[in-house]
What does this fold into?
Amino acid sequence: MEILVYREGSDQVEDGLSAEQLPDLLADKSNVVWVDFLADSPERIEEAKDVLLNVFKFHYLTVEDCIETRNQPKIEAFPSYLYFIVHGVRPEETSSSNFVTKELDGYLGENFVVTFHLERFRSIKTVKQQVRSSPFACQRGSAYLLHQILDQLVDLYMPMVEDFDDAINELEERALQMKSGNTLLQELMNLRRSVARLRRISARQLDVLYRMSHGEFPQIPSNILPFFRDVHDHLQRISDLAENYRDLVGGLFDIHFSVIATKTNEVMKTLAVVSAIILPLSLIAGIYGMNFENMPELRTPNGYFLTLGFMGVVTIVLLAYFWRRGWIFQKDLVEIPTEPDSEDQ
Amino acid sequence: MEILVYREGSDQVEDGLSAEQLPDLLADKSNVVWVDFLADSPERIEEAKDVLLNVFKFHYLTVEDCIETRNQPKIEAFPSYLYFIVHGVRPEETSSSNFVTKELDGYLGENFVVTFHLERFRSIKTVKQQVRSSPFACQRGSAYLLHQILDQLVDLYMPMVEDFDDAINELEERALQMKSGNTLLQELMNLRRSVARLRRISARQLDVLYRMSHGEFPQIPSNILPFFRDVHDHLQRISDLAENYRDLVGGLFDIHFSVIATKTNEVMKTLAVVSAIILPLSLIAGIYGMNFENMPELRTPNGYFLTLGFMGVVTIVLLAYFWRRGWIFQKDLVEIPTEPDSEDQ
Amino acid sequence: MEILVYREGSDQVEDGLSAEQLPDLLADKSNVVWVDFLADSPERIEEAKDVLLNVFKFHYLTVEDCIETRNQPKIEAFPSYLYFIVHGVRPEETSSSNFVTKELDGYLGENFVVTFHLERFRSIKTVKQQVRSSPFACQRGSAYLLHQILDQLVDLYMPMVEDFDDAINELEERALQMKSGNTLLQELMNLRRSVARLRRISARQLDVLYRMSHGEFPQIPSNILPFFRDVHDHLQRISDLAENYRDLVGGLFDIHFSVIATKTNEVMKTLAVVSAIILPLSLIAGIYGMNFENMPELRTPNGYFLTLGFMGVVTIVLLAYFWRRGWIFQKDLVEIPTEPDSEDQ
Amino acid sequence: MEILVYREGSDQVEDGLSAEQLPDLLADKSNVVWVDFLADSPERIEEAKDVLLNVFKFHYLTVEDCIETRNQPKIEAFPSYLYFIVHGVRPEETSSSNFVTKELDGYLGENFVVTFHLERFRSIKTVKQQVRSSPFACQRGSAYLLHQILDQLVDLYMPMVEDFDDAINELEERALQMKSGNTLLQELMNLRRSVARLRRISARQLDVLYRMSHGEFPQIPSNILPFFRDVHDHLQRISDLAENYRDLVGGLFDIHFSVIATKTNEVMKTLAVVSAIILPLSLIAGIYGMNFENMPELRTPNGYFLTLGFMGVVTIVLLAYFWRRGWIFQKDLVEIPTEPDSEDQ
Amino acid sequence: MEILVYREGSDQVEDGLSAEQLPDLLADKSNVVWVDFLADSPERIEEAKDVLLNVFKFHYLTVEDCIETRNQPKIEAFPSYLYFIVHGVRPEETSSSNFVTKELDGYLGENFVVTFHLERFRSIKTVKQQVRSSPFACQRGSAYLLHQILDQLVDLYMPMVEDFDDAINELEERALQMKSGNTLLQELMNLRRSVARLRRISARQLDVLYRMSHGEFPQIPSNILPFFRDVHDHLQRISDLAENYRDLVGGLFDIHFSVIATKTNEVMKTLAVVSAIILPLSLIAGIYGMNFENMPELRTPNGYFLTLGFMGVVTIVLLAYFWRRGWIFQKDLVEIPTEPDSEDQ
It folds into this structure.
């Protein structure tokens, strides 16, 4: 548990306070208090629980939700505070084939922000550093401080989302080459799952931000609303991209099927051309391999050479026929295209 | 019929009361009365019907709905009570390939909860045990007692839903191997049906909980609303997962088709390579099997060996050609991938 | 035209009244009057039109709608009456491959119900019998009487809807066997059309019932609303099933395509295995059928038998290879699965 | 420009009036004035523009919209008049493979209707004839007159829409026969485009009629609303059918793919059966065509006949095998089904 | 930075004013001031930022949004001004395979319009020329001036959108010919991306225009609303077309798959016919190539010729059989259809 307090008129935040001092700090409405719980051990969870329930007197269902993982982003209004769950990306573990998020729970009151998380958040760390170097974010009140945290958290989605772009382009290229068989299928499925998760999370998160930024809650004063709207707009963009990725991943399956079908078609053509040329020639050879006593051609001195010549003519005629139908001697249709402009906006 | 009564100020619930005492118990508004009907025989159904219509004076359409099965989850408000239908899973019979639910009907009044079911419910049993060991749930009134029952009932969905996750992963693996032919198809269809049922039931149930948790009904006081909201959030998660499973099952069909197409492509390649190599060689053999009298090669002492050598060269050239086109000697593309991380959130 | 009148306090309905008496009957607000027009001939249509326009003074657009067929279910409020169109199934002609409905037009006033139909309705007949044997339904007023008619009409959808279930299961089984070729396709298309019609009709009808059951119209008093809600719930269930059937029919197409693809794959395997085994053997035979003078093997006494033995070895090796790749000697993958549990809820 | 005026109490409409008289005619609020502009030449467009801007004083953006083509149906309210755009079908040019509409612009005021069109409209012509033969439509005021025009215009959609039904049935039949190759594909694409256009136009037009028929505009008095509702219902039916056609056209693609796949399967079976029977026989012949010196069978007097007999036995055994697998001698699966009942409602 | 001022009553706009004069110009509410920032260098961005923040006192989040690219179209209301982002097409770079837009940010106040862009806009240039040649657009106030700019900007979408039409038709033709293999697939994917972008951008932009044109903002007086509605309608049309293009691009994939499948079917037929005719003939030849001593036919003088004749008969019978099944001698089914009428409305 880390407590940061900004006292009105001060030019820096106080640090390193203890839980005992909290009631007094909160009682002075001109303070801005940020309590951050990194509950990464059972003892810390217990400690946090105690403070949340007994000092802040938060509804114990919300405290239970804090501790539980696997919650969706949501926001709930209580008479004197807001409770919210948002999700941040886990950059270390996340890739386009395995999009993972972690939960950040929090409370926003008139003069306090509480954040609770079971794992470290880069965005929390960044805002703490900012606040310590300059109390600017605190001077505007608790809602602005919360905005800073959410802004940082949402900003970290963007690089992840751009990874999707790259992954889709790479898979598109590989689908067009059909080099990697089932690996490709597996990756397509993983990408599809990741995109679905991103869509689900960002849709719910967008809803939380929408409600925060439209003046529904008295804890967020109207002069701070544009800042939340700004975060909302960023998330909107991510959400739109997620919708777009869904379509593009669907398109990758189409390409995949199309390439398999085209390749099979090509194999069939090869087989058909080989068979259609060799089989008739074999028949000719077979006919002159018959053992009838009376086969006049066999005795002509040039019969053999004429037959070979005839075979040559048949071959040329058939090759010409298949060439005209476009079955042979075309430039390879399945080649790697030049990298498409992936600058999706 | 089982009647449990909590009298205000008491520290345990009274048990084993009879229908005759009900009017008095209900008249005292400080009591919290839970009447549970397990109507698993025609006689019990008659008995329950009688109590519901004559003691509680519930609308007889709702009593008819109680007895009837195959109703959808719903909630109806009457001046002095709420009537609701919710569905619980049938864990014994339910699997991911056959998702089955059972109906729980109920009434919520100012100081009573009535539950009616044709089959045993594990959640009912659990709450009864809780209440008997400590009347805590009753002290907060009838709405809180109902919340306890619904909470237990919804919690039992979760393991079922996780079974879907496993089933989808297992089917994905099998689809990638294409070992089980039509059995797979059959299971995919069953899974699709189950997911559709889960989606339908949870969507309707979500609607019931949404209405319960948004202050629409005077029977649920506002301090109890957060508890219902909690159940609603759990159900929301289940509903989201159901939506997700739908997409994933759709993806399994894509994989299935893709694997069939890839396998056919592979078979075609084998056929084409075999034909394209053996047929020309057979033609050569056929030519030297012709019976022309004048075939100079036949008389050369090394003709046979040169021909065999020529056949070898043709074979090597063709093999090289097909190898370069990637038709042969590639590592098998259709192999079992490593188990994907199925930790879907 | 058939007129049934229930006079307040009476214990049976009066029957066989004539159009001339209608104005008096309607003027007495304590009566409940049901006028049923079975307009199955041009004369009866004219007679009905005359009564509707001149006795009841209904808006002539509604009278035109009565006579016209091919209307969608709808409800329209006029100051002193409601006009509605609902659709009943035509059980004689309807099957899962050709879902047909017939129109029932009607009016509901303070003390009257008017029903108009060009074809006989089983539900109308049933309610008439009920009312004649006991005036109970009339005692509660005209809205309750209408509820009785609609309830009967909606109940007759259920057996039809269950036919869909059977048809889907039967087609699924046949799709898995791929025995019936284009007949199957044709039936799938017909089923899809029927399901689309059922969805369309039930969606519109649901809308009519929704409006009837939510207190929008003064003609339906609030104590009768639960009865309409009950009909609404039945229809809701039908509508949900129709949505479900749509997905299942889509799934049948997937199965159909999958089975064709699997069968083609199997045929290809047979062809590939036969070719890959016989062609090399034929080549060997072809080689020893060449007419070179100097072919040492031909003169060895056991050459023939060694060659046959070699051919046997090649066959065994290739069979083993294809067996290991899973192309042969597997149990037939395309078999009839056991009947799935079709108890869809 | 054609001006028709109905003066109150008169029993016929006045005709052949000039633009100069318009201000007086419009000033008398008891008149009903219909001004119809057929602006099929640049001069007439100029003339119309002049009257619309200077006599009627309509907003010049609406006048610009009149002259421009390619507008969507819409309705806009101005203080003293309504401006609307609706689309009629072009029966001469329209077919199910090329659904084309033409624009009708108009204004509705307290005592006038203005219609403006660049092409002739059959519906306009019909209403003019009606009005000239009997002023009935005018007696009810300008809104009723407009209703007459829209009613006629919407009625002309119906035959077109029924053409779609026929086209879909015909294409379904042809898809099942797969006789027409790419022509079919082309027609399917055209039909899909036409259906998309019909859906788009009718959805927007429905919106216009919905707003007209729900009492939003003071120009349409409430006693006229049922008539607009009637037109709305007709359009609703067309819109519903369009939705339905979309699904059916999608189904045609499914049939098309299924038939191609089935045909390919059949071709493959033929090939596999021929190869699997002939290749082994050829191998036998090849073996006895080898030139080994020591091949005892060759010298037995009945060797040849026994070999032929053996070939016969092999053939019969293989035919029996393929017959049992259902690959041969089945009645042709791809046949023309009997015409389906296309009576879609 | 370019400042254009229209002073009331003047007959031309003043030009070439400097930032210092702005406060005075803005203070006089009868002026209409247009400040256009082309911020194509870091210095100009700084200059613009300074004016926006210090002279106009705009919220600095909006100024940040101005400078940032990759924003979606949006509109935000502040007490004394509106902030909006719209997107224009980049005609130079945009093609149907790579639809690109550029951002135009702006502010609308009671008597001013501010436009900010990092790149040149043709629409801005056009309106400047108009305003300089005649101050008409300014006389109606700042909202009308903004309408002019948006109208020009939206008009430039139309040619782009028509390019899509052409691209879809061209790809449809090529898909039907299947000449270009993967290039086609690549172009289909690019087109799909472009259409998706167009849909996304136009949907958001439509939302901006909808809000502008429905009287939500006091900055846009009600007499100017019809002009914004006009722009909205244009955009609506573009948005509708984009929806339509999405369906059509989906249809192109269907055609593509269908053509591949048909071609494969054709190749298979060729292969099957060749095999089914040549293999039996080869068998006959093989039989008479056997070396049995006792083969009576070999010694008959006409055996050879009878055999050849028999082969001819077999050939003719098989050709007739395949011709009757429609496998050969049909006019080529895959031909280029006549160009479809692409006049999509």
Summary: Residues 206 and 233 of chain D are 9 Å apart (CA to CA). Strands of chain D lie at 2-6, 32-38, 74-78, 81-89, 101-109, 112-117. Confidence is low (pLDDT under 50) at residues 332-345 of chain D. The longest helix of chain D spans residues 225-287.
